[in-house]
Amino acid sequence: MTIIWTGIALGSLYAIAAVLYNLTVATAGIFNFAAAQYVMVGVFVAFVIQGELDLPLILAVPAGAAIGGLIGWLTEVAAVRPLEDKTGWAPLVTTVGASVVIEGVIYAIWGADPRNVDSILPSDSLTIFGGRLQATDLALIVTAVVLCTAAHVVHSRTRWGLMGRAMTNAPDTAAIRGINTKRLVTGSFVLAGSLGGASGVLIAPKTGAVFSLGATLVVFAFAALTVGGFGSYVGCLVGGLIVGLIQVHTERYLGSSYPLLIIFGTLLVVLLIRPTGLFGDRRIRLV
Amino acid sequence: MTSFVYKFLSRKDLWILPLGLFVIVLLLPALGYEAGFLRQMILISIYTLIVAGLNLSFGFAGEVVLGQVAILAFGAYTAGILSNHGVVDLSIAMGLSLVVAAVVGLVTGLPGLRLSHMALGLITFFLVLLIPPLALAWESETGGYTGIFGLLDPTFFGIPIDTDGALFFVSALCAGLWLIIFRNLVLSRYGLALRLLKENPLLASSLGQSVRSLRLTAYVVGSLPAGIAGVLFAYATAYVAPTSFTLQLTIAVLAASVVGGAQSVYGAVVGSALLVLGPLNADAFEKYSLIVYGAFLVLVGTVFATGLTGVVRNGTDRLRRALERQLSASDPTDEVVGSSAETLDLTIPGEALTVRGASRSFGEVKAIADVDFSAQPGRITALIGANGAGKTTLLNAIAGAITLDGGTVELGGVDVSSMSAAQRARAGVGRTFQTPMIPASMSVEEVAASGALINGGLKPLSAILRLPAFRRQRREDATVARDALGVVGLLDKLDEPASKLPLSTRRLLEVVRAVAGKPKVLLFDEPAAGMDDDAIDELRALLLQLRDAGATIVLIEHNISFVLGIADDVHVMELGRMIASGTPAEIRADEKVIASYLGSRPVAPAVTPTGGGQHE
Asked: Rounded CA gap, B63 and B68, in Å?
């Protein structure tokens, strides 16, 4: 059971990253490659607050949200807004660029060495259903479940979600119907940045602060999204958990060099057999 | 002087310049350059191979590929493992690495191209991360983290390659050969098809191209040179280890592609040279290289979409046209071909189009319900109705851009209902789009020539080798394009960038493109929208000429006086149903049509907001 809890905790991390990607996919139809870097920035905010400024770590939540939101906003302004065609390959190139700039800045300041961040939560482990897990892991799981559920409810039940769905379906029509599509796009980037930045406080103790975190996280988030299905927040959670569980089990039974290979294989098979994933929106496939 | 410069810039055989440069570069080792310089040149050749491969799949086909470095690694490991087993001939290693690159390309491409654009990008990005675990998982052959050492003194077809000069010669030869293959491939029907695909897959399929096979071949063929590069890389650095194949290199390669100009052939050399010789390789800048590469991607992606070679090309094009104007002003006898519309001997044998019981719903909305429709050769059949009546849906269903829930589409007695859009285009369905789709990179002549793609294959091999069959086809396509352009008097604009033309000319050009392949039925979706009166007159003349040439023409149009003036048969739709059919005079008098669409005053087209969105 312990290994399952470990997998679920790891999967929750991927689910949170997947939500950041899904935010812009589901509201604006744009895959923002840089989204995982917001988590990386959040993790460094946590490190700076705890390790360099000696302040209470909890401050990393508002600080991460503010800095992450700002970077999310900058990504949209610099890399997406000037594009004429926002649906094809162009935003992928420019958001890869934005992602690399963010990574490069962190690398130029703090270098390649990973830094530790201690959790705010006690390091005792709890026993639940016969398996042990750390308090940080439990917090991560709870956060992922709450975040995915909330995002799902907002997306499917509220005005904001309705506007987003209208926009991914037919942007021009949505604009004609009085939806401020520009603000919606910007909003989804800022929200992704804020959530990513704020989540750093939970993720930092697990991963440490290292500049390459975003580049690894993007492929796991992508795997989670593909398995779960683009456009679906329930898919983010389920996909994330599946990927996390696959990872810990292959690591345990096959060795540490295999998880990536197995996840990659799973990804290819899912794409071949069911490109929309478990809960995907069929229309997003065309975006 | 000006006339000399103009003539020089207009020459079609300017390829001789890069070819000459290539030969000179090949001779560099013989001139006794030192090893350090040659090593840099080897690296430039290697990167040129990688970047030029990327330019094919990314620049020309519009597939964001981030895995070139992984293919480089596969090629390098192929060479390393072969060398461990005593096989040091570069030709064998290259042959095998081509196979490996093709297999990796297919395994990742087939699933990666199932989902929209970003899937292939992310899968290939993932591939780069897989190199270290793959090397570890197969440690007995790959040497794990430490890698394979001591790759020295290879042979090439049995000839010892034991100096930097010799290795440079082989590297430059490979890079140069690939550039020739690449150039011949993109300056052909295949390249034209790729540029249609990049503009919009819908456009490519409307001109008879299978989007799936185009995307897959461009991606797989674009991976091949990276495999070759891997073999050269292994022997140039003398060792193969996972640490060489980083995400940082991936980004550098992508940046080199966009800075040089992704949609260009020689841009790869420029980008690669900047990558190897540029200031970023100085130790002081290494720390900031990621920031600079990333900024390049954002900047070039948003502002200078054409890269450095594009800037140069635009400059020379502008210079050439300025000189052309200056020359034709001073020398009136040197007139370019006349600009007024000529009447050519034109035949377009149309076939009867019959739609029976067509139905299609989008969610709850029945866009078209049980519609019967037909169009005859030598007649203009108009389809009118308010926005949301289902006209474009019907047109898309005929063209195969959407599938019907029920009903059949027959063309000349052949049931085409189960065919894809590309197959229908080849079966003789030609169309234009409501918003003109004119690829930004194409000249007027190229746009017209792309219409000929619905007849005959792309024949990439014949294009690479420039076989006689290729030349014959190229002449035919040029004739087809010029004939079609002659009809609308665009012959004096052959070399102009088509996307820069005014809207009404672009609409005419779309009609020309649709006509060039002489399809059995022509579907025109609001060709007169946004046109001024002069352009409408030109369009009317063109449509009548096409009709008299025997074409089957289906015309969707909102300009009622124009459409009722020109049509032979008129069909009126309302909320997905056909409410009236007849001659223009009958339609003008039909009470249902007046109530639904024309309004009490015959000429005012009433617009009822029925809100069908994009599926009007």
From this structure: 12
How far is it, in rounded angstroms, from Cα A112 to Cα A212?
8
* Displacement of CA B379 from its chain's centroid (Å): 33
Residues A76 and A91: their CA atoms lie apart, in Å, by 10
pTM of the model: 0.87
Model pLDDT for residues B314-333, shown as the tens digit of each residue: 777 777 777 777 776 665 44
Note the ipTM here: 0.90
B105 in reach of chain A (CB within 8 A): no
Coil, strand or helix: which one is B166?
helix
CA distance B109 to B130: 16
Structure tokens at B188: 């052909």
For chain A, say whether B5 makes contact (Cβ under 8 Å).
no
Q: Which of B297, B364, B607 is the best residue to mutate to test the A interface, defined by the most A CB atoms within 10 Å of its own CB?
A: B297
Q: A88 vs B292: CB contact, 8 Å cut-off?
A: no
Query: A267 — contact with chain B (CB < 8 Å)?
Result: yes
A145 CB within 8 Å of a chain B CB: no
Set of chain B residues whose Cβ sits within 8 Å of the Cβ of A29: none
Report the 10 Å Cβ neighbour count for B238: 12
* Structure confidence at residue B11 as a pLDDT band (50, 70, 90): low
pLDDT over 80 (residue B1): no
Q: What is the distance between the alpha carbons of residues B479 and B472, in angstroms, rounded to a whole number?
A: 11
Would you state the structure tokens that stand for residue B247, as one six-digit string? 């995400």
Residue positions counted in chain A: 287
Q: What are phi and psi of B569, to 5 degrees?
A: -125, 145
